Amino acid sequence: MLDHIHLGCANVYTTAFDLMNATKLGHYDGGFTRDIAVGQKTMPLGGGVYLEIESIVDPFATADASRRPWWYTRAVSLKSAVFSGVSLRVNTMDELNELAKRHGGTTRLNVRTPPDGAQVKFWEAPIGNADPWQSGKPTWCCWENRLYAHPSGQPVVNAPGLAQPIGVVWIEIGGTKAEMQTWLGQNPDDLKMRFNGKAPGLYAIGVKTDGGDIEIRRPPASAASRS
Question: Residue ranges per domain, the chain?
């Protein structure tokens, strides 16, 4: 099942604020990661799915260009927030380990510290020499027994006129359905994927709200779409 969608940008604050004004979807401070000095705003989309909006928040820690996330470099070059990737959810670490093995990679623990200090942890796969997101492929994650603290279920900031998200109703992907089915090992229709035949990557998502359906469309950050 769909877990979260990543939106990389140059400024996490203005991107989250502008997106909230455009969609009427609320967000909250998702915290930061120390290893690459990235901060996050989290936007629940309903149905156990969320959008993570991230950017560099410490330019000194990332003065070395090699430490900057690839999606950040892409967002800066396009002068736009970019859809960086899709993460699907499995229920157990056994499932995640099997997916990592099938794709010739490993699993990795991700740790983020929100404002209250209670660390948020989840595992993702497959991790290898290349990030699947750079070629427009989804990854998988596992929260195991921590779904009670899942980011999609946390309260948003109290802003006026917000809509209530009900869930993601479609996601627009580049490439072909056959290519995606080979990577996923399941029918992409089950994940509400539709394909535009363009270069691989995520192009747009549709979200159902109590005020009607909305569309969020941004350029894909995948390396295959850079030409």
Answer: 2-160
The 8-class DSSP code of residue 155 comes to: P
Centroid of chain to Cα 96: 18
For residue 198, count other CB atoms closer than 10 A to its CB.
15
Check whether 171 has a pLDDT greater than 60: yes
Contact 43, 104 (CB under 8 A): no
Task: Kindly tell me the number of DSSP H helices and DSSP E strands found in the chain.
Answer: 4, 12
Q: Which CATH class is domain 2-160?
A: alpha beta
DSSP H helices in 47-155: 70-78, 93-102
Tokens of 139: 């990854």
User: β-strand 38-46 against 212-217: which pairing, if any?
Assistant: unpaired
Average pLDDT, the chain: 92
Comparing CA positions, the residue from 203, 195, 205 lying closest to residue 82 is 203
